[in-house]
Amino acid sequence: MAHLIEITDPADPRLADYRDLRDTQLRKALETEHGLFLAEGEKVVRRSVQAGFSPRSFLMAPRWLDGLADVLDGSDAPCYVLSEKLAEEVTGFHVHRGALASLERRPLPSVESVLEGARSVLVLEDVVDHTNVGAVFRSGAALGFDAVLLAPRCADPLYRRSIKVAMGAVFQMPWTRLPDWYDALPALSRAGFTTVALTLADDATPIEDAVAGLDKVALVLGSEGHGISPRWQEAADRRAIIPMAAGIDSLNVAAASAVACYVTSHRRTGG
């Protein structure tokens, strides 16, 4: 069972994992150096532990101890108990969900193992906003996608905000980073996937037509600013667009992913 430790000093050095969460650059450096990530909220904390990640520690307001008693009973990590006011001093924001956990990262799996048995995968190129990455994971999980592949410069799915927006979907969907950006799409084609890039290119066809009849689909989404790079647009097997009403040319990547995932998950397959 987790060892409950009452904390009265917000400067307590044992709370280092949770300090100054508003400072994104500081958090990235700390999490990279120590190989950790944070989960926030009862559901997300529970899902992260159920997914097999090892807790380093927990930080909780007293009112969450009963609700997460089963999670705490199954761990020997320390649980720091402090008031919500003190938690806010430590983290730098109002911890309205009242529960945090610091967990050990695991080595990323190979692309081959993530793709094993998959028929519908999402491929993200340079999606740099943590909220958008979390939203894409949530859409993919909700609409039956099997895995997510991320180009090297994509935001971290295990950053606290990504996890929170994804509602823990980052723990249930297999994912990894692509080691080779330049030839990533041709490699997926060789693995039997038809790569379908969501783009405003002149030769893009409606998403319903682009995915119709396909067995294995890799749906490719680009960055928040310029979209998919010229290299990936050229390398994709097909280019697709979500038809828009007059005056609007596109959706943001989070909304576009939800629409495209829905259409792709309902495609007619070729058998």
What would you say this structure looks like, in words?
By secondary structure, this protein is of the alpha/beta class. The chain folds into two domains: 3-104, Ribosomal protein L30/S12 (60s Ribosomal Protein L30, Chain: A); 111-265, Alpha/beta knot (3-Layer(aba) Sandwich), CATH 3.40.1280. It is built from twelve helices and twelve strands. It has helices spanning 24-34, 42-50, 69-73, 84-91, 111-115, 130-142, 160-166, 169-172, 184-190, 207-211, 230-235, 253-265, and strands at 3-6, 36-40, 55-60, 78-81, 99-104, 120-124, 147-150, 175-177, 194-198, 205-206, 217-221, 238-241.
Q: Can you tag this structure with a few keywords?
A:
5-stranded mixed β-sheet, 60s Ribosomal Protein L30, Chain: A, Alpha/beta knot, 2 domains, 7-stranded parallel β-sheet, 271 residues, elongated, alpha/beta, 20% strand
